[in-house]
Each structure stands twice: as structure tokens, then as C-alpha cells.
Amino acid sequence: MWSRTKLLPLYLTAVGGMISSVFVLLMLFSLNLSHGDQPGGIKVLYGTMSIAYLTAELWLGAINSLIALLLPPHSKTFGLAVWSLVQVLIYSSGPEIVGLALRNTDPTSSVYLEKTRIALAVIIPVGYWLAGVGFLLAIPLVKLDLAGKFVEGRLKWSGRKGAFITAGCVLGALVTALFTVSIYYKT
Question: Are 24 and 52 in contact (CB under 8 A)?
């Protein structure tokens, strides 16, 4: 059974995000879908938000177990830590990007609300679909890796560690720059 389900985390991750993007769009425009009826919009909002969250976030445990499976025993915790770092840095940059895009708009206006909806309606689905396609494209390489045919011999961890640290620093610098620019434009 395990041999047939090893790649299930990648499929869950890829397809779950893609499905979730549809419910995110429904959630963002729930008031419009209910023709301006606020109680009806709230029902649409909570229903679609629940489905969006379930389809987008149920994959977390599965993808973490796949990452742990693919890494050699001596680097599992470091690899999972790097994966968590990347997730946090990417997630935290989203509000900064939206804030920068709307910096010249009055936050109390209806225009701000509409622009925020549009920004989120573009950013979230595009992110989910790009990630989903990336995960699906990774499946053949993961199959090779699970079969032990991707890398022969022992990996030189020092070179990989340097690459992880460099990538983390670049991503951290990007998030720091976004944060700094957002503070600059608020004043």
C-alpha cells in the first residue's frame, strides 16, 4: 500500500491549493454573490472560507512527512526548519506587498476595500496555481529520489547547507526590504 501512496502528499499539496483558489475567490466576493444581502453574504463567506481553509491547509502534515522522508537522517530537522523558515518568510511578505500596492489609498474608503479584494483575488490564486504546477512537475524527480536513483552515493551536506543558508538569507533580505519600504511609505 505504501508504494502506491508515497506521492500522495505532493498530489494533496498541488491539487488542494488549486481547488482552494476557487473557494478563496468565492470567499473574497461573497457579498457580491449574495447580491448585497449581508446575512446571506456571511453564510457564503463562512462556508467558502471553511472549504478554502480545509483544501489549502490539510496538506501541511503530508508535505512535512514527505520532506522528512526524502532527507537523510542526519539532516531531517535542519531541512524541516529551512522549509518552515521559507513558509514563514513568504507568508509574512504577503501583507507587506498588499500594503505597498495600496499605500496611496485611504484605508477607510470603499475603494480600499475593493482594491484589497482585487489584489488578494490575484495574489492568492496565482500563488496556489504556481505552487501546484511546481509540485506536480516535481513528481517525476521525487519518484526517482524515492527509488534511490536521483543521487548516487552520499550527499555532501556542507555544500547544500551553504546553499540553504544563502537562499534563506536572500529570502530574509527580501522580506526585510519589503518591511522597511512599507514603514518608509507609511510615514
Answer: yes
Residue 68 contacts residue 80 (beta carbons within 8 Å)? yes
Cβ-contact 53, 3 below 8 angstroms: no
List, for residues 53-110, the tens digit of each pLDDT value.
Answer: 888 777 677 777 777 777 777 777 888 888 887 788 777 777 777 777 787 888 888 8
Instruction: State the pLDDT at residue 79.
Output: 80
DSSP string, 112-125: HHHHHHHHHHHHHH
Distance CA(91)–CA(93), nearest Å, equals: 6
C-alpha cell of residue 67: 520532506
Show contacts of 102-107: CB within 8 Å, 24+ apart. 103/182, 103/185, 103/186
Alpha-helical segments (H) within 29-58: 30-33, 38-57
* Closest C-alpha among 56, 68, 67 to residue 12: 56
Instruction: Assess contact for 27 and 49: CB atoms under 8 A.
Output: yes
What does the alpha-carbon distance between residue 64 and residue 81 come to, in Å, rounded to a whole number? 10
- Neighbouring C-beta atoms of residue 24, cutoff 10 Å: 24
Enter the pTM of the model.
Answer: 0.70
* CA gap 74, 5 in Å, rounded: 25
